[in-house]
Design goal:
Elements (H helix, E strand, L loop, with lengths): L2 H20 L13 E5 L9 E4 L2 E7 L5 E6 L7 E8 L5 E6 L6 E4 L11 H18 L19 E4 L4 E4 L6 E2 L3 E4 L5 E3 L4 E9 L3 E9 L2 E11 L6 E2 L4 E5 L9 E8 L2 E3 L8
Parallel strand pairs: 7-9
Antiparallel strand pairs: 1-4, 2-3, 2-5, 3-4, 5-6, 8-11, 9-10, 11-18, 12-17, 13-14, 13-16, 14-15, 15-17, 15-18, 18-19
């Protein structure tokens, strides 16, 4: 075998090997408000380009077609229609994708603890001090090539409140959006990490009760609320399936359950898109 042919074979092998290493599972493409859009950047350069949507950095990973893919979290408040991501490359181009409309159910929730519906001034002062911690955690960006976007359910139980519901509390007129997935389970039911990640925040908060926040990389953050017990601390590295705490009824709740939030590019999205169909 001559040297030129040998080099071509080696290069072909390295390209195939690189694709096998860096191609990864992605959440399901569902470009609706509160969903996820997978946008093919039609680019297979060695370095991932930086991509932004609504001025927020977007996850970029290698897809199975060996192209870089932008994994875009779509806000619940976004209107249907054509939208664009910006690619900070040499040519600074824009790519469009279409968001289709989706109607979410309206539901009234009854909360027995009236302070969780109409907080006192002291409660609001406490919340105003706690909120920046949560905001900062959801803005976390960790550079890494592989992002674990194939999840398992963090707790065994009944799906009691779907993501995206329009909700009122105690029949008040104000409508709030449900930005997580509620899984009802008895107090003390184990909660596990749905994927590999690092704990970046734990605490006891007015509305969310016992809370854990996990960073999975490139702006993919998961949040666990209303825990009765927390068994991890900030800085802990977790593998998929590792124990993080127990179901409870702390914070603003109508009964024991886990409120599970998935945030992508600092946008809360449908957790089911990260689970096997």
């Amino acid at each position: 075998m001559n040297k030129l042919l040998y080099r071509k074979l080696i290069c072909s092998f390295l390209i195939l090997f690189s694709s096998a290493v860096f191609a990864q599972d992605l959440p399901r493409h569902n470009p609706v408000p509160g969903g996820v859009a997978i946008v093919d950047l039609k680019n297979n350069d060695n370095m991932a380009p930086k991509v932004y949507f609504l001025k927020r950095r977007v996850m970029v990973v290698k897809g199975k077609n060996d192209h870089w893919q932008a994994v875009v979290g779509i806000p619940l408040s976004l209107t249907a229609g054509k939208h664009k991501i910006s690619i900070k490359a040499a040519d600074k181009k824009m790519l469009g994708f279409k968001v289709t409309s989706k109607e979410y159910e309206l539901r009234n929730i009854t909360i027995s603890n009236k302070r969780k519906v109409s907080p006192t001034k002291a409660d609001l002062d406490r919340h105003s001090k706690e909120k920046p911690l949560m905001v900062a955690a959801l803005k976390t960006w960790t550079e890494q090539q592989q992002v674990p976007a194939s999840f398992i359910l963090p707790v065994k139980g009944r799906l009691s409140s779907e993501f995206g519901l329009r909700r009122t509390y105690n029949k008040q007129k104000r409508i709030r959006r449900h930005t997580g997935l509620d899984i009802a389970a008895p107090n003390g039911t184990p909660i596990v990490a749905p994927a590999k990640g690092r704990v970046i925040l734990t605490g006891e908060y007015f509305f969310t009760g016992g809370t854990v926040v996990i960073d999975h990389g490139q702006g993919l953050i998961t949040l666990y609320c209303h825990l009765s017990k927390t068994d991890v601390k900030a800085g802990d590295e977790l593998l998929q399936g590792e124990h993080i705490g127990e179901v409870g009824s702390t914070g603003r709740v109508s009964g024991p359950h886990l409120h599970w939030v998935v945030s992508l590019n600092n946008t809360k999205v449908e957790p089911k898109l990260f689970l096997p169909e």
